[in-house]
């Protein structure tokens, strides 16, 4: 009888250890690490029309191609849906659109490119932002003042609206690739311009080590958080959303 009891004890211990290992694996789903030295993002983030500015966005190429294909006055009567071919090269499933980002560093030790996220902690604030931004093409300066909106039409509009709604509701995240290792350039003949200049698109290669930066509103600059190893676009977006704003994971279902 003692033998059976001892065996049960040992079996329980082994099972508990296995359970601990499984839980540990689940918690370390992403391989994250801190770099000994990370180049600090340089320049003034308020500089106009740069990816350093959290409020300025650069569409991903396939979104630009989609706009081109959905032109209300297309150059041909053919159905233009070739952009879908290029969208299929990106595996985003949860939160669209992502924006293009090309941060610069104080030390140009490697070329960088990546994605930028604007994350909002509740849908009401996100809807309010879109509602207020939509006022600009519809109203003149006097009407905008009645909405307590800045009358100018530059890139500072969104910054002022976000500060009005409360920066505590927003998180800007930049995910930075080492372009010398993790990107390739492909030709897009369908998007060739009238002057015969070839159009190119950047596509990232995986697996990749990606540096993560979070915008600090108080310091008005980007701060390095950590680096993560990911196997694709979808895994990268899952990591960002789980870490910074899980409510967007509902969009994955």
Please characterize this protein's 3D structure:
This protein is of the alpha+beta class. Helix content is about 35%, strand content about 20%. Helix 4 packs antiparallel against helix 6. The strands form 2 sheets. A 7-stranded antiparallel sheet has the order 1-9-8-5-4-3-2. Strands 6-7 form a two-stranded antiparallel sheet. The N terminus is likely disordered.
Major sheet: order of its strands?
A: 1-9-8-5-4-3-2
Proportion of helical residues: 25-40%
Strand content: 15-25%
What is the gyration radius calculated from CA atoms?
23 Å
Q: What does the main sheet amount to?
A: 7 strands, antiparallel
**pLDDT averaged over residues:** 82
By helix and strand content, what is the structural category?
A: alpha+beta
Distance between the termini: 52 Å
The total beta strand count reads 9
Structural shape: globular
- H/E element sequence: HEEHHEEHHHEHEEEEH
Low-confidence stretches: 1-27
Number of H- or I-type helical stretches: 8
Short description:
33% of the residues lie in helices and 22% in strands. The chain contains eight helices and nine strands.
